[in-house]
Amino acid sequence: MIYLYVIKSTKHKFRYVGITNNIDERIGRHNAGRNSSTKPYAPFTLVLKEVYDNYESARQREKFLKSGVGRQLLNSLE
Prior knowledge:
Blueprint lengths: L1 E8 L5 E6 L2 H9 L12 E9 L2 H11 L2 H10 L1
Antiparallel strand pairs: 1-2, 1-3
């Protein structure tokens, strides 16, 4: 299974959209500061989690959520 996830910083106005096959470990790495692109914005809370059967489907959804319309959708969830 492939997970698409959206995390939001609890201290800054920052949101991150990503894909992983181990969501607990991946979010733990974000919160521990072991990802250079998210390190300055830790800690995070999980905003959205979706499960996909294959990487290609998850990647399409990730691209959508990073688009203008997708960002508006994420804003409406918060």
